[in-house]
Design brief:
Layout lengths: L3 E5 L3 H14 L11 H7 L11 E10 L3 E11 H7 L3 E9 L3 H16 L5 E4 L11 E2 L17 H8 L3 E12 L6 H14 L2 E3 L3 H5 L3 H13 L10 H12 L7 E5 L5 E9 L2 H7 L7 H11 L4 E9 L8 H16 L3 E4 L2 E2 L3 H5 L7 E12 L1
Parallel strand pairs: 4-5, 11-12
Antiparallel strand pairs: 1-2, 2-3, 3-4, 5-14, 6-14, 7-12, 7-13, 7-14, 8-9, 9-10, 10-11
Helix pairs in contact: 6-12, 10-11
């Protein structure tokens, strides 16, 4: 590319180019699911993103002839993660580019230089600020529909990473299951024994439970405990928890959320799922207005898709291997059937998390959409 320029985003126009660039390269792709543009903009706004209290983020856009956007990337430094994991990493995310190695190389180099100015010694990604942000570059199954909580990318993306000398750090896979018409015998039996032997109970939470009885914070405190050892995870702060509660828990259909408590009414397990918004987001084009809100509301309330996204499952460490997961499935499978949900997909799960992956065995799972976090020394 003759006149390639990488610009650090500082103006409204450049931010518009950053946010809107995927519309150009994925315009005719039937598998791409856009982000809500509002969410992307909020990621860079300290007033909207509590994660920026402990992180830095910088957007870059690649231009051809100083006019036409041909790529984008964000550099991210999560200082709390670096402190916790004793690393000096700069992360990259929001990485999209035309099929030109000069473009992808220049974008990554911009993040590398930005990171070096802040004394980082290694680059990794795609990752976000928190574990709730999208992470991992798709390296297979490019002909499967994406989801609201994962990146989609073309097959040439990982080819560029390998050509530029980046190596695998970790891989995630997603689990796809067909919802059975009845609860598998193993789950039903283990769920019954867990209730009897460990005095566990399933609770369906309400909006009042979240806002007035503290269940929003209870759930996120559980996530902080359960996810603490997981690759790259940093505990959520109180302000982050408040933001997530405000943004997401009011949106989720509470019937598709399963909370498990012990005899002391402590939250020791949670499974959060929701009806898929993939087609609704595609129809909206990532915009709430003028009609995007209608497609999203329709998928959430009026005519759900026959697919559910299993957003997260967490169990307190001292209750793992005690049948809590069986309680989730024992509760959710009948509800999925009532909703007409035929399939479900998990979010990305680490390929070496054997305990997490084996829990799906009674449901004859298919492992799909492998995605990768790359690394490179600076």
């Amino acid at each position: 590319m003759k006149d390639l320029t990488i610009k650090k985003v500082t103006t409204k126009r450049e931010m518009n180019d950053f946010v809107e660039f995927p519309e150009t390269i994925y315009k005719d792709c039937p598998y791409y699911v856009p982000d809500l543009e509002m969410d992307v903009r909020n990621m860079f706004n300290p007033k909207k993103n509590a994660g920026l209290e402990c992180s830095e983020i910088q957007a870059f856009v690649a231009y051809d002839s100083n006019v036409h956007p041909v790529g984008r990337i964000a550099g991210i430094i999560n200082h709390r993660a670096n402190e916790k994991w004793k690393t000096q990493n700069v992360r990259f995310g929001f990485f999209d580019f035309v099929d030109d190695l000069e473009v992808s190389s220049a974008l990554l180099e911009a993040v590398i230089q930005w990171g070096k100015e802040r004394n980082t010694t290694r680059i990794q990604g795609p990752m976000g600020i928190t574990d709730f942000d999208k992470e991992g570059m798709l390296i297979e199954d490019f002909d499967r529909l994406g989801s609201m909580n994962t990146y989609y990318n073309y097959a040439y993306y990982p080819q560029h990473m390998e050509a530029l000398g980046y190596e695998k750090e970790v891989d995630w896979v997603q689990v796809r299951i067909q919802i059975p018409s009845e609860i598998p015998t193993k789950y039903a039996r283990v769920a019954r024994l867990s209730k009897e032997m460990f005095d566990l109970k399933v609770k369906k939470i309400t909006d009042k439970d979240i806002t007035r009885r503290g269940y929003g914070h209870k759930i996120f405190q559980l996530l902080n405990t359960a996810y603490s050892p997981i690759f790259g995870f940093t505990e959520f702060t109180d302000r982050q928890i408040d933001d997530f509660i405000k943004m997401y828990l009011g949106l989720v259909d509470k019937r598709l959320v399963t909370v498990v408590e012990n005899e002391k009414d402590e939250v020791i397990g949670v499974a959060v799922s929701m009806c898929s918004l993939s087609h609704a987001l595609r129809k909206s084009g990532g915009k709430l207005f003028p009609f995007g809100w209608y497609y999203l509301l329709k998928a959430l309330k009026w005519k759900p898709e026959p697919m559910a996204d299993l957003l997260l499952i967490a169990v307190r460490p001292d209750y793992q291997m005690l049948g809590v997961n069986a309680l989730f499935f024992d509760d959710l499978i009948p509800i999925y059937n009532q909703y007409g949900i035929e399939w479900a997909e998990t979010g990305p799960q680490l390929e070496d998390n054997v305990r997490e992956l084996t829990q799906w065995k009674p449901l004859n799972p298919t492992f799909i959409k492998r995605r990768r976090c790359y690394k490179k020394k600076l």
